[in-house]
Write a structure and sequence with these properties.
It is built from ten helices and twelve strands. With about 270 residues, the protein is an alpha/beta fold. The protein has a five-stranded parallel β-sheet with strand order 5-4-3-6-7, with helices on both faces. Strands 8, 9, 10, 11 and 12 form a five-stranded mixed β-sheet that branches. A two-stranded antiparallel ribbon has the order 1-2.
């Protein structure tokens, strides 16, 4: 019997190491595969795009916000992996009728590392999780050395248009903005607030505007519209996966961030 608390403080009890796992979060699906658990993975969402071949080898059980409970149950899983931000907590009673359900809650890099450690313990991948954590810490320390002497720049990170929505505090995105020495002008707002772009100059006048590639597909016209209300901010189209996917995806983020800063330096 293995007992551990998930990141909401709920006790998860497993009689045996799970051999049939459902993941309802794309970044956690990728993490499971990087922990050498692809063979144990039986169900995923339609948004689980890494590794690319999973959609042709695993059963799609819905999306992060709309879960097909019948499909979940039919797969006879013995472990379901969710996330507080991606999945509705209202799912929990139905999911727990099917299998032990772990809810992650990741807003910092340390939260992400703790999740990797938890899954390594629960799913008998201690060596794999320890190796992954070591790689993340190595690249994190290298990036901190890289960013140390870079200037701090005021920034706004957009995730949606009409209504305009940004990343505020208590989000993993905000954590990575801080890591990059981007001072989030909406850090005084929680989660993903709607904002009025007409007021952006008065609410912080960012030097850098980042338009995320997900969940909304921003176009040049969006960049021009937002930019018109700033004092000549530099606008970049950012890779949403590398700013918002926790777990093993961050290993790809650090090199991307270095490239992003090199691109920005040419504008200042």
């Amino acid at each position: 019997m293995s007992i551990i608390k998930d990141q909401l403080g709920r006790e998860i009890s497993l009689k045996n190491t799970p051999k049939r796992i459902i993941s309802l979060v794309p970044s956690q699906t990728e993490l499971l595969c990087d922990l050498d658990l692809e063979n144990e993975l039986v169900g995923i969402t339609k948004f689980c795009v890494h590794p690319y071949h999973l959609k042709s080898t695993k059963t799609i059980v819905g999306g992060a916000k709309k879960v097909d409970f019948k499909k979940n149950k039919a797969l006879n899983p013995n472990f379901i992996l969710c996330n507080k931000e991606e999945n509705s907590f209202d799912f929990l009673p139905e999911l727990e009728k099917i299998a032990p359900t772990y809810f992650s809650n990741v807003t910092t890099i340390q939260d992400s590392i703790n999740l990797i450690n938890d899954l390594g313990t629960l799913l008998n991948r201690r060596t794999e999780s320890a190796n992954l954590i070591a790689k993340i810490n190595f690249k994190l320390n290298d990036f901190k050395a890289f960013i140390k002497d870079k200037p701090t720049r005021k920034a706004a990170y957009f995730i949606w248009a009409n209504p305009w929505m940004v990343a505020g505090n208590k989000t993993y995105i905000n954590e990575l903005l801080k890591l990059n020495k981007f001072e989030n002008i909406y850090n005084n707002m929680s989660r993903y607030p709607k904002i009025d772009i007409h007021k952006i100059r008065h609410e912080g006048d960012p030097e850098v505007i980042i338009l995320s590639s997900e969940p909304f597909s921003f176009k040049d016209e969006h960049a021009m519209e937002i930019g018109s209300y700033t004092n000549r901010a530099v606008t970049v189209f950012g890779d949403g996966e590398l700013f918002s996917w926790f777990g093993s995806r961050i290993l790809h983020s650090f090199d991307y961030f270095k490239e992003l800063h090199a691109k920005l330096e040419s504008h200042f």
